[in-house]
Automatic annotation (TrEMBL):
This is Hsp20/alpha crystallin family protein. It comes from Thiolapillus brandeum.
Length: 79
């Protein structure tokens, strides 16, 4: 096998691994993305910020269990 063919095969395998990794990441993160919409009672500054943003984001959360309870901590804008 020529050196060029070996390089081609190596690049093909590397590209396949990269694509597979991105697909796996996308599948795991697809449900983590949340759509935010502006509220009816927002002030002018909030409306301007909402107009400049994409409206999508990821909520930061933490889940852990104690001896007698499950604790969920969620950072939700506006709450």
């Amino acid at each position: 096998m020529s050196t060029l063919q070996q390089i081609k095969n190596g690049m093909t395998q590397a590209w396949g691994g990269l694509v597979e990794g991105w697909q796996h990441l996308y599948q795991r993160a697809a449900n983590a993305i949340t759509h935010f919409s502006k509220g009816k009672e927002d002030d002018e500054e909030s409306r301007e910020l909402a107009a400049r943003s994409t409206g999508w984001g990821v909520l930061a959360s933490e889940v852990y269990d104690d001896a007698d309870k499950v604790v969920v901590r969620l950072e939700a804008p506006g709450m």
